[in-house]
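#structure-requests
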Amino acid sequence: MLPGENIPSSEDWGPIQDGDSWARKIYMGKSLTEVIQRFSELPTSAAEDLSFMADGPFRYYIFGFQKILLPSDGDEKMQAEEPGLAANAFLNVVHSTLKQCPHKIMPVMDQLLPTVEYIAGNQATYEAAEEVFGNFQEILTQIQFLYSIRQCEIC
């Protein structure tokens, strides 16, 4: 699924897997607009929700996470209530998914990478203290390395 595509169907979710019943309850059948508040208010929980999703729903709902981390058109303010926490959670979900389930994220990495790079280059904008969240540039380097390896695996 790519941003703007249809809401994932029950077929996209597939059979119920261990741990995904909570994510299904919160997200199944809902648009990004309907779940954006969860990403904004509970970014760590939303990141965990994404980790339990099937490929199609993950590729759809990750863009809800992305949306809260970028200023809206004509608005300088991000939608994330705690920008540092949300930015860190987003970077971690991209990193861990690339590492553990690359098939899930690789089809949308071209759309996510500019956001990852923007966040890493603007850590102070997200009020993400390095002593609390680590260095976002280092996380970016790890993500870029994993991405390049995963691209080579596809070739």
